[in-house]
């Protein structure tokens, strides 16, 4: 079974194994660059080996394993064997069995899933405790004897103060999370989870798992992770590389859709219309409205000959291409090809040989006729026509009746730019431009797309994501209670349909690993007022502290709370309305306290998905009152704390925030 000394000796074997892998990878870099069949594979192989060599040599000296499974003799497949499980596979000596098994391998699954009730052949599960790279101890569960208990190592990992960016959770993935991490590649899933239930962690580990299980397919097709903003990505983007996965594209939807600079902003009324699913129809009609009925034949001069495609034939060609429901750009090229084919037939009937150069020349020569019936289109031009105004005039154009007059008035430019080149685009316009671009030419898709904070996606944004997962699958992560956009989701079924996966399973995660129990209780009192139909959650954490402090001067009060927070280790986040960030930053600095380092002052609008060890929420009533879904915003702010939450307020607290049981919160 192994004593601590045995296990320490095993750590040495792992180190030797890693050295062997590193030497092997280095040798292979040299060989790989010369042996691969073609340039593309040589490059790929070379890149792969180089990154493996780099990874292995730069591997932070993390623990080589975190767990061990000893199978009982009764297990058919693994009878009597023991396996160490770690973040990465470590090869054994002389082609022998690996010394460490990757956490994603099928056999590792039992580490996360086996229980006394269902031991899955496991006699003993061992969890290791480390201090840096020193193995400090282990905990055993003799599942074959029905032993299974609360793990101290697990609790310590979950309750550890947070510093720096988010870490992986491979050592402590919970069974309900493991189910989602290992869901089949072809299944799209939607995870509804209260704050801190590990949605983001699950999404990232699912990406790593899928890449392991379907490496070939996904390396080619690509995996995309979409987060709500850059700060969030900064917080989570190190997790996949530490799991050895460098090739996942992690970005925000806005960045993914940015084809033109955003230099203007919409008011809420305009944004709401622009994000409505009906805009897809408006844009479709505007784009296809550019196609006009042919009124002239196509005539191509060719030396002494003149080739002609009659008006009625051209009309048939155009109608046929329209009916084929091809992307607009492909339709245009089909019309061109059919016109050229018709001319080729005529020419050949007259004894002309149609070689490639001649065909190309004819194809060029028909462009003016093609432009007249099926003009080339750029997304900006189409959107310019839609937003150009005046509203009443645009409303009469194709697609006019899809929106009401008031809606047209909301989105058309009050002072239209002179030309498309001088148009100033907004963030919502990016989504519309993407819609048009995709109607002209299908965008690149991915094998798997993971979208976080998905409750905030608008119907038009969902369509943009759906297009990228059309031939792949989706992991949708979110919490209906945390929706803060005007178009936030109220039901996952609707969103999954908009995301193109109406049959995607919706699964709830209900155990919170971030927020301490007392804080969850307080935040939960808001739920009734949020109108979101979400299951109740419980916190895994019995530790933590909640304090409500009424002050006369908010800046002073917050600075005092910060000073106290500095006495503990871990990150500190002050969360306030966007407008209060500056004055509070000054107030904190004026008290001689450093902003930056482990203290951040965060606008409530950017706090989503983040967590701090100690959170100070400044003036909840102001956060709740700052926007239409201000109470949802407050719910997000209150649920960022890992160890301690201070609520500091000069104004009365919002009445929706009550003590469990319904008593209003007494500030003092
Ligand atoms: N099984 C686990 N073991 C250890 N830590 C975990 C586990 N699951 C989640 N955590 C930790 O709990 C915290 C919250 O996780 P995460 O950010 O993924 O939750 P979330 O559901 O996305 O939250 P939110 O809705 O607030 O964005 C993180 O620090 C994460 O590492």
UniProtKB/TrEMBL annotation:
<dbReference type="InterPro" id="IPR000212">
    <property type="entry name" value="DNA_helicase_UvrD/REP"/>
</dbReference>
<feature type="domain" description="UvrD-like helicase ATP-binding">
    <location>
        <begin position="172"/>
        <end position="516"/>
    </location>
</feature>
<dbReference type="InterPro" id="IPR027785">
    <property type="entry name" value="UvrD-like_helicase_C"/>
</dbReference>
<keyword id="KW-0547">Nucleotide-binding</keyword>
<keyword id="KW-0347">Helicase</keyword>
<dbReference type="GO" id="GO:0005829">
    <property type="term" value="C:cytosol"/>
</dbReference>
<dbReference type="GO" id="GO:0003677">
    <property type="term" value="F:DNA binding"/>
</dbReference>
<dbReference type="GO" id="GO:0016787">
    <property type="term" value="F:hydrolase activity"/>
</dbReference>
<dbReference type="InterPro" id="IPR027417">
    <property type="entry name" value="P-loop_NTPase"/>
</dbReference>
<dbReference type="GO" id="GO:0005524">
    <property type="term" value="F:ATP binding"/>
</dbReference>
<keyword id="KW-0067">ATP-binding</keyword>
<dbReference type="Pfam" id="PF13538">
    <property type="entry name" value="UvrD_C_2"/>
</dbReference>
<dbReference type="InterPro" id="IPR014016">
    <property type="entry name" value="UvrD-like_ATP-bd"/>
</dbReference>
<dbReference type="GO" id="GO:0000725">
    <property type="term" value="P:recombinational repair"/>
</dbReference>
<feature type="binding site">
    <location>
        <begin position="193"/>
        <end position="200"/>
    </location>
    <ligand>
        <name>ATP</name>
    </ligand>
</feature>
<protein>
    <submittedName>
        <fullName>ATP-binding domain-containing protein</fullName>
    </submittedName>
</protein>
<keyword id="KW-0378">Hydrolase</keyword>
<dbReference type="GO" id="GO:0043138">
    <property type="term" value="F:3'-5' DNA helicase activity"/>
</dbReference>
């Amino acid at each position: 079974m192994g004593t601590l000394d045995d296990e320490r000796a095993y750590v040495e074997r792992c180190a030797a194994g890693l050295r062997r892998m590193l030497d092997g990878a280095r040798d292979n870099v040299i060989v790989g660059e010369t042996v691969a069949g073609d340039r593309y594979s040589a490059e790929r192989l070379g890149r792969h080996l180089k990154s493996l060599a780099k990874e292995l040599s730069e591997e932070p000296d993390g623990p080589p394993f975190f767990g061990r499974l000893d199978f009982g003799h009764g297990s058919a497949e693994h009878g009597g064997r023991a396996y160490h499980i770690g973040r990465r596979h470590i090869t054994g000596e002389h082609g022998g069995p690996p010394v460490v098994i990757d956490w994603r391998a099928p056999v590792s699954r039992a580490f996360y899933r086996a229980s006394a009730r269902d031991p899955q052949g496991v006699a003993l599960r061992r969890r290791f405790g480390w201090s840096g790279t020193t193995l400090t101890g282990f905990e055993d569960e003799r599942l074959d004897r029905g032993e299974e208990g609360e793990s101290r190592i697990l609790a310590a990992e979950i309750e550890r103060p947070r510093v720096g960016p988010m870490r992986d959770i491979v050592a402590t993935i919970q069974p309900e999370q493991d189910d989602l991490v290992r869901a089949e590649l072809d299944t799209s899933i939607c995870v509804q989870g209260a704050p801190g239930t590990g949605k983001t962690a699950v999404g990232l580990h699912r990406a790593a798992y899928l890449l392991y299980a379907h490496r070939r397919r996904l390396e080619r097709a690509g995996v995309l992770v979409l987060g709500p903003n850059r700060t969030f990505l900064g917080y989570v983007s190190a997790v996949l590389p530490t799991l050895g996965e460098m090739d996942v594209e992690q970005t925000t939807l806005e960045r993914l859709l940015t084809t033109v600079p955003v230099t203007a902003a919409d008011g809420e009324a305009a944004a709401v219309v622009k994000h409505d699913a009906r805009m897809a129809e408006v844009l479709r009609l505007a784009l296809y409205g550019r196609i006009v009925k042919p009124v002239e034949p196509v005539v191509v001069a060719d030396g002494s000959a003149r080739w002609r495609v009659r008006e009625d034939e051209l009309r048939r060609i155009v109608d046929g291409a329209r009916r084929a429901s091809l992307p607009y750009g492909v339709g245009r090229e089909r019309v061109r090809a059919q016109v050229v084919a018709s001319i080729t037939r005529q020419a050949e009937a007259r004894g002309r040989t149609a070689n490639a150069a001649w065909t190309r020349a004819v194809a060029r020569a028909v462009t003016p006729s093609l432009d007249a019936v099926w003009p080339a289109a750029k997304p900006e031009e189409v959107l310019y026509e839609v937003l150009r105004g005046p509203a009443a005039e645009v409303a009469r154009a194709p697609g006019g009746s899809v929106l009401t007059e008031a809606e047209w008035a909301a989105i058309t430019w009050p002072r239209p730019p002179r030309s498309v080149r001088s148009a100033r685009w907004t963030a919502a316009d990016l989504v519309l431009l993407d819609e048009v671009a995709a109607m002209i030419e299908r965008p690149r898709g991915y094998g798997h797309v993971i979208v976080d904070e998905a409750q905030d996606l608008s119907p038009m944004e969902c369509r943009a994501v759906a297009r990228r997962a059309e031939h792949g699958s989706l992991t949708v992560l979110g919490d209906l209670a945390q929706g803060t956009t005007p178009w936030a989701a109220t039901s996952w079924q609707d969103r999954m349909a908009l995301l193109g996966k109406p049959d995607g399973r919706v699964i709830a995660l209900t155990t919170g690993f971030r927020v301490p129990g007392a804080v969850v209780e307080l935040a939960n009192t808001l739920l009734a007022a949020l109108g979101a139909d979400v299951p109740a959650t419980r916190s895994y954490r019995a530790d933590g502290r909640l304090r409500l402090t009424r002050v006369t001067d908010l800046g002073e009060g917050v600075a005092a709370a910060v000073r106290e927070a500095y006495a503990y280790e871990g990150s500190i986040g002050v969360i306030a309305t966007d407008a209060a960030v500056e004055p509070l930053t000054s107030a904190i600095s004026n008290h001689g306290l450093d902003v930056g380092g482990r203290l951040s002052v965060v606008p409530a609008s950017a706090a989503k998905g983040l967590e701090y060890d100690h959170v100070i929420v400044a003036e909840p009533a102001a956060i709740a009152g700052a926007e239409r879904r201000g109470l949802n915003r407050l719910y997000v702010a209150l649920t960022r704390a890992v160890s301690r939450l201070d609520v500091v307020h000069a104004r009365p607290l919002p009445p929706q925030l009550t003590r469990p049981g319904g008593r209003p919160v007494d500030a003092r």
